[in-house]
């Protein structure tokens, strides 16, 4: 009966709704919920639904839902609530309602919300274990991890009994033996139900692996079940990650941290040390940053540490990295202080290769310098100097492992870590175990940042030149762009996450160019990293962001990083920058956020990979789903402070796709897809990825253009290119005849056809993501994803189409707003239109000569692909046979 009630609950309660149960709710009451006759569940056999649990408001036993159930964990177990938030009552949800406006005086950056001070982790676990043990998703998870259905009830009963009788958590010897305090990074973590769920499951597996547990269980529990749980816990143990890297442990590295706020010059000393090194590597979070370092090192634009540039050397202001105090701006620069020069010098030029997820550029086969994204960092190399940028991303739930593994395992003699002050405590804790030397260099902001006395009071007409408006949705960006252009006549550039980095860089260049007539930047939090922007004032449209589940307040680090983009040192005649908000209600919170020190990052994220992943798969059932594989590190892996584990934001979508459309793929191939740059929420992308998998499964060779037929990608791109060609032909004619507006400008009809619209723009943005995914997979399986040259060519076409589409959108709208019948286009728009037709300028002077790792062409390519295909098929068969042999035991 109980298992059926669990299944019924699973169809009505959300996966994490247990967090909304009252803190004092006893285990017996939780059982009563599942069996109470006053609660009507969905019918299991017919599939028809009667009155649901959530709608039954007259139950004798009610579950107190204290917030918005659709938000999952939220503020479930908090003893205090944010001001002006109201409960919807038992079982009520806000699903389908319009988002509520922010309360007038919320204070998310004030007092931390947590359990009472006298509550320990043990007390928190003890008070919730009864409810937790009866939750349907806990039962499903244990089955997925390999615990037989018949053994789950007695195991959980014994586990709960020992905790409730204070035989487990209250025993000092056992608490020390199990290291209970490790189960949460800090007490505030316990306010998050997901952390509590993870801690419960980890404790269960630690308890099951203890030899002393077996005698306490009923004789009906199979000892093989405990052995399987113990084996899985041992295999998934991440307690000593420093031992994974013996080469790094065999040396005592010198680790130098360069920390400070945005616009503090914290990166340049590290880059100069890299330029002076015999061999070295730069690793950053974005391919644009890696590309910039690659280009500057090859051109000799970074002055090596200890060198003095020529007296006439000019500093380069167009860099995405912080400028040094004395090298920012021509007026302040001297020959002795210029760190990054505009023209470069041959004597400083170094051969440097580029490695990103999508592209590998080889300047020299044995070049001693490499610029890469962090995920592409080779941990078996032994550079003299390594620079790891944006070290605070070590706590990123998905990408953090790349930074953690670099800090733990890169065997560099001198390791430079650049980023925010918030990362210092975590790095200090990591290096206490490794025995490396740590030096912390702190930098101050080079120009003042102040909050304006008033907001825009909701009036976009108050936006002025040099402003950057920050919002957090693609739709919102284009709506605000339209409103500002209609209200002020100013043209707006845009930058947001889905826009390709290359186009974000182009839009930034337009905004920075005083002659481009693009006076305002509208962007998302994508402006906080990797873009060189000459912003005078940052305007927050809101301080809240939808995170895929609910609207939440921006973190202190996010606010500080975005606001810090204003007033970049040396880029404006006036010293300093300002920041404000659109609405008056957000302004006090902005004041408080900028005045409050950002908390230290909570942990360094670890992941299971390589040999550990293979061993983990053998400890799970042979038919284990991908969801089970991806959940093991989170729910079972034992780790010590200051480490956490990776969390996949789109785990349900990833697991469902790989389990349904990734059939017949090996575990390694599935894990490659799980970590690929896939827009899992985008239906068009998923259709194309499904076609990739089908082709790979059937023939190994993945035909890019056949896969693209799954969506209207090519026809949309060609339509944009045709309209760009018409604009380009007008540009050529105007340049020849002098144009109606004089000075070679092109004049177009205000009511004419747009080069692109918002719908087409979204389609070709998705096409760009698909091409990047194909190139990423091509770097890892070149025999299968063999059309990388064609993909690069198509990617270039897409970027040109996006460029001209974005640039041309503003001009007709501005003409219509001003009542003009015709509008002149600036040369930049015409140049983009010409480039989109393939008639752009030729090879640039001084272009770096490099080769791309790629498959051969013609008959040689066909023969080589046939051989590679046969080899891949043979290797996959050997791997599958090996897995089958292991599972046969």
TrEMBL record:
**Span list, region Disordered:** 47-111
Query: This protein's superkingdom?
Result: Eukaryota
For this UniProt record, the keywords arranged alphabetically read as follows: ATP-binding, Helicase, Hydrolase, Nucleotide-binding
PROSITE patterns on file: HELICASE_CTER
Q: Which Pfam families match?
A: DEXQc_Suv3 (PF22527), Helicase_C (PF00271), SUV3_C (PF12513)
Give a GO biological-process term.
Answer: mitochondrial RNA 3'-end processing
Q: Which Gene3D superfamilies match?
A: 1.20.58.1080, P-loop containing nucleotide triphosphate hydrolases (3.40.50.300)
Bias kind Polar residues: ranges:
52-62, 82-91
The Helicase C-terminal domain covers 434-609
Give this protein's Gene Ontology molecular function annotations. Answer: ATP binding; helicase activity; hydrolase activity
- Would you name any one GO CC term? mitochondrial degradosome
Q: What is this protein called?
A: P-loop containing nucleoside triphosphate hydrolase protein
UniProt entry tagged with the keyword Lyase: no
CDD domains the record matches: SF2_C_suv3
Origin organism of this chain? Coniophora puteana (strain RWD-64-598)
Q: What is the lineage of its organism?
A: Eukaryota, Fungi, Dikarya, Basidiomycota, Agaricomycotina
């Amino acid at each position: 009966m109980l298992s059926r009630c669990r299944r019924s609950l699973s169809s009505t309660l959300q996966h994490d709704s247990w967090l909304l149960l009252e803190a004092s709710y006893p285990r017996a009451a939780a059982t009563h919920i599942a069996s109470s006759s006053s609660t009507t569940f969905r019918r299991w056999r017919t599939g028809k639904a009667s009155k649901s649990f959530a709608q039954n408001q007259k139950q004798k036993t009610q579950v107190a839902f204290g917030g918005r159930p659709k938000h999952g964990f939220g503020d479930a177990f908090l003893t205090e609530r944010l001001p002006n938030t109201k409960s919807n009552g038992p079982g009520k949800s806000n699903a389908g309602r319009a988002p509520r406006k922010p309360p007038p005086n919320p204070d998310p950056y004030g007092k931390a919300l947590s359990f009472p001070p006298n509550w320990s982790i043990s007390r928190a676990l003890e008070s919730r274990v009864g409810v937790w043990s009866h939750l349907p998703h806990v039962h499903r998870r244990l089955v997925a991890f390999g615990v037989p259905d018949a053994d789950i009830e007695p195991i959980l009963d014994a586990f709960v009994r020992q905790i409730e009788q204070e035989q487990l958590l209250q025993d000092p010897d056992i608490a020390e033996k199990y290291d209970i305090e490790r189960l949460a990074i800090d007490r505030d973590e316990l306010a998050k139900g997901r952390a509590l769920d993870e801690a419960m499951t980890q404790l269960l597996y630690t308890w099951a692996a203890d030899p002393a547990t077996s005698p306490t269980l009923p004789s009906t529990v199979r000892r093989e079940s405990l052995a399987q749980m113990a084996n899985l816990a041992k295999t998934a143990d991440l307690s000593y990650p420093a031992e994974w890297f013996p080469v790094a442990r065999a040396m005592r590295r010198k680790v130098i941290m360069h920390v400070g706020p945005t616009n503090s010059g914290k990166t340049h000393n590290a880059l100069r040390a890299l330029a002076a090194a015999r061999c070295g590597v730069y690793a950053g979070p974005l391919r644009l940053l890696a590309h910039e370092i690659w280009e500057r090192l090859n051109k000799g634009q970074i002055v090596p540490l200890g060198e003095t540039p020529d007296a006439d050397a000019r500093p380069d202001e167009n860099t995405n990295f912080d400028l040094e105090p004395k090298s920012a701006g021509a007026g302040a620069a001297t020959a002795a202080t210029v760190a990054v020069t505009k023209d470069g010098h041959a004597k400083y030029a170094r051969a440097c290769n580029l490695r990103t997820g999508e592209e590998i550029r080889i300047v020299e086969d044995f070049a001693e310098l490499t610029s890469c994204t962090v995920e592409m960092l080779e941990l078996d190399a032994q550079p003299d100097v390594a620079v790891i940028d944006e070290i605070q991303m070590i706590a990123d739930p998905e990408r953090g492992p790349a930074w953690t593994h670099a800090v733990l395992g890169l065997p560099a003699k001198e390791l430079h870590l650049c980023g925010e002050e918030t990362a210092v405590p975590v790095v200090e804790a990591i290096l206490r175990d490794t025995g490396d030397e740590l030096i912390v260099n702190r930098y101050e902001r080079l120009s003042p940042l102040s909050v304006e006395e008033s907001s825009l009071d909701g009036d976009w007409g108050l936006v002025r030149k040099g402003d950057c408006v920050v919002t957090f949705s693609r739709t919102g960006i284009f709506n605000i762009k339209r409103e500002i252009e209609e209200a002020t006549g100013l043209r707006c550039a845009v930058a947001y996450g889905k826009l390709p980095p290359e186009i974000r860089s182009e839009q930034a260049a337009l905004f920075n160019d005083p002659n481009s007539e693009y006076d305002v930047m509208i962007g998302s939090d994508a402006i906080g990293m990797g873009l060189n922007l000459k912003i005078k004032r940052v305007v927050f449209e809101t301080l809240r962001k939808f995170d895929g589940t609910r609207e939440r307040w921006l973190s202190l680090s996010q606010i500080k990083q975005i606001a810090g983009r204003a007033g970049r040192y040396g880029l404006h005649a006036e010293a300093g920058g300002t920041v404000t908000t659109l609405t008056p209600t957000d302004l006090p919170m902005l004041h408080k956020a900028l005045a409050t020190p950002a908390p230290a990052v909570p942990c360094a994220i670890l992941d299971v990979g390589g040999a550990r992943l293979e061993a983990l798969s053998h400890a799970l059932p042979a038919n284990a789903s991908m969801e089970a594989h991806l959940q093991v590190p989170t729910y079972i892996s034992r780790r010590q402070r200051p480490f956490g584990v990776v969390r996949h934001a789109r785990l349900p979508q990833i697991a469902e796709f790989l389990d349904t459309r990734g059939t017949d793929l090996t575990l390694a191939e599935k894990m490659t897809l799980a970590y690929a740059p896939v827009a899992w929420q985008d239906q068009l992308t998923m259709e194309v990825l499904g076609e990739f998998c089908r082709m790979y499964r059937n023939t190994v060779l993945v035909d890019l253009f056949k896969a693209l037929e799954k969506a209207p990608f090519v026809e949309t791109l060609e339509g944009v290119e045709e309209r760009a060609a018409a604009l380009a032909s007008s540009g050529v004619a105007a340049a020849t005849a002098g144009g109606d507006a004089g000075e070679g400008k092109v004049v177009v009809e205000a009511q004419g056809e747009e080069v692109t619209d918002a719908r087409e723009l979204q389609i070709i943005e998705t096409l760009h993501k698909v091409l990047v995914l194909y190139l990423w997979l091509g770097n890892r399986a070149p025999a299968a994803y063999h059309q990388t040259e064609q993909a690069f060519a198509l990617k270039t076409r897409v970027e040109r189409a996006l460029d001209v589409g974005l640039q041309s959108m503003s001009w007709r709208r501005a003409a219509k707003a001003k009542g003009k019948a015709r509008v002149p286009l600036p040369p930049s728009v015409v140049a983009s239109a010409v480039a989109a037709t393939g008639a752009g300028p030729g090879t640039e002077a001084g272009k770096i000569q490099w080769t791309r790792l790629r498959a051969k062409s013609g008959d040689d390519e066909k023969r080589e692909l046939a051989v590679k295909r046969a080899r891949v098929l043979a290797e996959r068969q050997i791997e599958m046979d090996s897995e089958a042999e292991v599972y046969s035991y």
